[in-house]
Amino acid sequence: MDDGIRSHLPLAGEQIIVTGAGSGIGAATAVLAAAKGAEVAAADIHRESAEAVCGQIAGGGGRAIAVEVDVSDEAQVEAMISRTVQELGGLTGIVNNAGVIVTRPLTETSVEEWDRCLDINARGVFLGCKHAVRHFLDRGIAGSIVNTGSISALTGQHGQAAYAASKGAIVQLTRQIAVEHAAHGIRCNSVGPGSVHSAVLSSFLASQPDPGAAEASLAAQHPVGRIGDAEEVAAANCFLLSREASFITGTNLQVDGGYTAV
Ligand code: NAD
C-alpha cells in the first residue's frame, strides 16, 4: 500500500503488541490492526503460529514481527516489550489477549488447574499491563491497552470456576489501571467476547458430553442466535486501540451478540 494512503489509516504510526496472536481472536486482531496501519508484534507461546500470522500480514503489505512469549513469565514479558520497542521503534498499544480455558466443576478443580488458568489469564494480563505502562510512563506515551475478558467475567457459567475468576479479575484490573493512569493519558479497556469460533471454543465443546448439542445450545443462548467470529472481536479491539476511542477508558465492551443483555 502507498505510504500516503497508509498514513491516513486509523492505526497509522502505532506499534502494537497482540498476545495470543497465533490463533483465533488474537490472530484476527493482529491482521486487522496491521490492515488499519499499525506495526504489529504478534506474540504467542507458539512461535511458529505467530510467524505464520506475520507472513499473512506481510502478504497484505503490512509489517509485523513474531515474538515467542509465555505471558505468565515476567522476564519473558519484559523481553517481549524490549524487543518490540527495539525492532518496531516504539510501543503505543497492547492487546493482552492470550488465554486458556479450564472447564471443570468447582469441586473437581485441582489447585494445579486453578493456578495454570489464573497464571496465564490473570497474571499474564497483569504483567502485560504492568510493563506496557512502565514503558508508556518512561517515554511519556499516551498508550492504549485492551484486555480480553469474557461473558464469564460477568455471568455465572457451569464448570468455569477458575476461568470465570480469571476473567473477572481482568475486568476489575482494567478499571483500576484506567483510574490510576488516566492522568498520564493512558487508556485501558476490556473487551468481553461471547462464544466465538476458535480453538478455545473447540476445546470447551470437546469437553462436553454431546459437542453438537452444546454448540447449538450455546448459539441459542446469544440473542442474535449464533456464535460470533474472531473478526467481530478484532474490530472492537482495534477501535479501542485507536484515537477514535480517545474519550473511552475503564470500560468493558461486551462483544457477545446480546448474551449479557438478557
Ligand atoms: P485460541 O486458543 O484460538 O487462542 C489463544 C492463543 O493464546 C493461542 O495462540 C495460544 O497459543 C496462546 N497462548 C496460550 N497460552 C499462552 C501463554 N502462556 N503465553 C502466550 N500465548 C499463549 O483462543 P481464542 O478464542 O482466540 O481466545 C483468545 C482470548 O479470548 C482468550 O483470552 C479467551 O479466554 C478469550 N475468549 C474467547 C472466547 C471464545 O469463545 N473463543 C470467548 C470469550 C473469551
Automatic annotation (TrEMBL):
UniProt entry tagged with the keyword Oxidoreductase:
yes
- Domain spans labelled Ketoreductase: 14-208
Q: Which SMART domains match?
A: PKS_KR
User: Which CDD domains does the record match to this protein?
Assistant: SDR_c (cd05233)
Source superkingdom? Bacteria
The UniProt entry, under NCBIfam families, shows:
PRK07231.1 (NF005559)
Its name, as the record gives it, is SDR family oxidoreductase
Which species does this protein come from?
Candidatus Nesterenkonia stercoripullorum
